[in-house]
Structure formats: structure tokens, C-alpha cells
Design brief:
6 helices; L,D-transpeptidase catalytic domain-like; alpha+beta; globular; 4-stranded mixed sheet
Length: 271
């Protein structure tokens, strides 16, 4: 579940996207460069070549100072174990969300009480998360992107855009679990987390925390996004963040064609 598509030509692509059609929250170890699609880069290398995949995984392990063990072992287990505590509101209509771009943190509040404090992935400098006051207006557990995803024909699976789908191939959009849209084409959703701005404008959540956020907010919940928030120096100080997902292995593309991306989340629990 990591971004396979490289840097976005944000303005051009955004004009073509419909709600929910953000860049993928998923990455592959192989799709990196060479083929340009609407300002993004996709590799022409064979995604399914086992030897190449093994070499890439070993290289990532060797180069990453964040990795503390086997790519499929301790580091992945540590990532999957990450979670944040949450409380249910006394009055759901009083819930509001505040997001700090600088602290990469979201605060789900009821009055002055924090119901959930969670790290979020925010937009890169070339594709920033919008700031301002919004309201959540579209919640969908099993959201898929409308413009980008996977073209497939038998065992041949290619990540691409719908407009570039090869003739004779079926198409399925990129999974974007626990989608909570606050501005057309911008929303909170599950995705691999990194310790630096890494998205194309959406707010990315860890897969164990996103079901809690989804439960706490409703259509109409206010969302305030600013460079900083007053809670940064109190509630948001020293909050543990998930391990960097950059060196971790991705799932096989067939995982994203099915319902796997929507079923890997832990059931939400509340204090």
C-alpha cells in the first residue's frame, strides 16, 4: 500500500480528477521511473520478476538506516503494531477535527477534550494539503480512485491511469480505505506512513488508526487545517509516530484488485 506513482503535475491532474481520485496511497518496489503519465513516472520494468524484486528488497534494506531487521520481519511487524488510543464522544455533533501541517498531526476534539491524536501524512511542497475550514461530506469505507489504478488481463496487471488503459484490459481503481472527503478530490484515507510530507494533498492515516477516525467523524464534521495548531505544543507534543514505511515491502498487485486493502485494518477499539 505505498505510492507507486511519482511526483504529480498537481494542477493539471487535479483538473481531471473527480472526488476521491487522488494519487495512490500505495507503493511498489519496482514502479519508479521512465514512463511519463500525466506528469507521473512509471517504470517499464517487469513488476513480477522475482529476482529483480528480491534485489530491490535487499538494496532497500542495505540503504535504509530506518530498517531494524528483515524487510518482512521485525520492521514490518513494528509498523503493523502501531496504534493510537481513542475515546468515543459524549455528543457526536460536537466533534471537530484540527490538522497541523507543520506537526503532521490531526486532533479529533470534543470541546477541549481530545478523542484521538494521530500523526498524518501531509502534502508535499509541490502538491500541498489545502488549508482552511472545511466539512467532511463523503465517507466511504471501500473507496476506489476514479482515474488511476490497475489495468488487468489474466495474470498481467499494470498500474496506470484509466485514460491510458490498454485495449482489452479491465480496470479497477486504486483502493483508498476509510475515505473521508473534506474538499473535492481531497480526503483522509489509509496509506503507508512516512516521517515527512509525502502525499499529493490528501491526509494519510495509519491503517490501524483510520477505522477509529472513520468512526469518530460524520458527514458535516468541521475540519480546520492550518500550518500550526495550538494543540501542537500540548496534545501533539512527543506523540510517537509509526515507523517509516519507505523500506518496507509492498503487496502483490493482485492484493489491490481484490478486497485485501479494505480488510487488513484492525477493528477499532475505544477507551
Amino acid at each position: 500500500m505505498k505510492p507507486w506513482l511519482a511526483e504529480q503535475s498537481a494542477i493539471a491532474l487535479r483538473a481531471k480528477e473527480s472526488p476521491g481520485a487522488r494519487l495512490p496511497a500505495f507503493r511498489g518496489l519496482i514502479l519508479r521511473r521512465n514512463l511519463k503519465i500525466h506528469g507521473h513516472s512509471l517504470s517499464m520494468m517487469n513488476l513480477f520478476r522475482p529476482t529483480l524484486l528480491a534485489v530491490m528488497a535487499l538494496a532497500a534494506a542495505a540503504l535504509s538506516s530506518c530498517d531494524t531487521g528483515s524487510l518482512s520481519g521485525s520492521s514490518l511487524a513494528a509498523y503493523n503494531a502501531y496504534d493510537r488510543p481513542a475515546k468515543l464522544p459524549k455528543n457526536p455533533s460536537k466533534v471537530r477535527v484540527k490538522v497541523s501541517i507543520q506537526n503532521q498531526m490531526a486532533y479529533v476534539m470534543e470541546g477541549n477534550e481530545a478523542l484521538l491524536v494521530m500523526p498524518v501524512g501531509v502534502g508535499k511542497s509541490g502538491s500541498p494539503t489545502p488549508v482552511g475550514n472545511f466539512r467532511i461530506f463523503n465517507k466511504k469505507h471501500q473507496q476506489r480512485a476514479n482515474t488511476h489504478g490497475f489495468a488487468h488481463k489474466g495474470d498481467d496487471i499494470r498500474q496506470t491511469y484509466l485514460a491510458k488503459k490498454p485495449a482489452g484490459y479491465a480496470f479497477k481503481g486504486t483502493p483508498m480505505p476509510y475515505w473521508c472527503e473534506f474538499k473535492p478530490a481531497y480526503g483522509f484515507h489509509s496509506g503507508w506512513m512516512k516521517p515527512y510530507p509525502c502525499t499529493h494533498g490528501c491526509l494519510r492515516m495509519h491503517h490501524n488508526v483510520s477505522p477509529k477516525f472513520f468512526k469518530l467523524v460524520s458527514n458535516g464534521t468541521p475540519v480546520s487545517i492550518a500550518r500550526t495548531q495550538p494543540e501542537d505544543s500540548t496534545l501533539g507534543k512527543d506523540i510517537p509516530r509509526p515507523p517509516d514505511s519507505t523500506p518496507l515491502p509492498d503487496y502483490h498487485p493482485s492484493f489491490y484488485l481484490g478486497d485485501g486493502a479494505f480488510k487488513q485494518h484492525k477493528a477499532p477499539s475505544f477507551e
